[in-house]
Amino acid sequence: MNKLFTTIFAVTVSCVTVASLAQEIKGDAKAGETKNAMCIGCHGIQGYQASFPEVYKVPKISGQGAKYITAALNEYKKGERKHPTMRAIADSLTDQDIADLAAHYSADGVVAAAEPAKAEPAKIKEPSAEVQALLNKANCASCHGANFSKPIDPAYPKLGGQHADYLFVALKAYKTDNNPKVGRSNAIMAGMARQYTNPELKMLANYLSSVDGDLKTVPQKKFR
User: Fold this and answer.
1) Distance between CA atoms of residues 194 and 171, nearest Å
2) CA–CA separation, 66 vs 70, rounded Å?
3) CA distance linking residue 175 with residue 185, whole number of Å
4) 34, 72, 104, 181: which could form a disulfide with 53 (CB 3.0–4.6 Å)?
C-alpha cells in the first residue's frame, strides 16, 4: 500500500510540476514581432478578406487579449476550431511561439490605439430595442464586459469593433456540426449561439462591430 501511495504521489507531483511549468511560459512581445511572418499576410492588411472555407474579413487581432489569443491558437492546434489554414499554422507553433505572438499582438493594438491623456472617453453606442433584447437573451455582456471590450475572464475575446462578417461566421460556427472545415467546439458558446437564428446572429454581429473597442488591424511596414 505504501509503495502504491508513493507511486501515486510521485505521479501527481510530476503532473503538477508539468502544469506549473506550462503556466509559467511568459510571452515576449519583441520576440513575437519576429515570429509573425505567417500572420501578417492576412492580419496585417486592412480589410483583407479570406476566401476559404468562407468569405469574410479576417479578424482584427491587434489589441486582443493575450490569453484569448493563446486559447484560440491552442484550440486550432487541437482541432477544436476547424479551420484548415489556421490549424496548420497553429500546429507549426511551439507553446513559447504562441505566448510570444499573443504578447506581441496584445501590445501592438494598445500602442497603435494610444490617445492623448485628456481625450474624451469612448461613447457607448446604444443598441436598438430589438438588438438589446437579443443581447439580453444570452446575457452577452455578463461575459464580454462593458462595451463588449472588458471580458470578465482574460481568456474570453474582446468583441467591440470586430468585423461584423467575421463575428457572424464565428457565431455560426458554434452551431455547426459534422463539418470537417467549419465549426467550433465550445459547450457554453454552442448553447448560447443555438438560441438564435442566423439572421439574429447577423444583427448581433452588426451591432458589436459598430461599438468602439480596442481591436485594430495594424498595417505592416514591410513583409518578410
Assistant:
1) 9
2) 6
3) 9
4) 181
Query: Residues near 67 by Cβ (< 8 Å), separated by ≥ 6?
Result: 102, 154, 155
Q: Residue 93: which CATH number?
A: 1.10.760.10
70 in Cβ contact with 175 (< 8 Å):
no
Give the other-Cβ count within 10 Å of 70's Cβ.
21
* CA angle centred on 58, ends 53 and 62, rounded to 5°: 150
Q: In the chain, how many domains are there? A: 1
DSSP string, 54-93: S-EEPPP-BTS-HHHHHHHHHHHHHTSB--HHHHHHHHT-
* Length of the chain as a residue count: 224
Q: Which domain holds residue 164?
A: 26-113+124-210
Residues with Cβ < 8 Å from 79, sequence gap 6 or more? 87
Alpha-carbon gap, residue 25 to 98, rounded angstroms: 10
Tell me if 220 is assigned to some domain: no
**Which of 134-138, 146-150, 218-222 shows the lowest per-residue confidence on average (mean pLDDT)?**
218-222
The answer to whether position 20 is within a domain reads no
Give the whole-angstrom CA distance, residue 98 versus residue 81: 16
Question: Using one digit for the tens of pLDDT, what is the confidence trace for 89-147?
Answer: 999 999 999 999 999 999 997 754 445 555 555 567 899 999 999 999 999 999 999 99
- Amino acid letter for position 26: K
Q: Report yes or no on 38 lying in a domain.
A: yes
Question: In which element (H, E) is residue 131 found?
Answer: helix 129-138
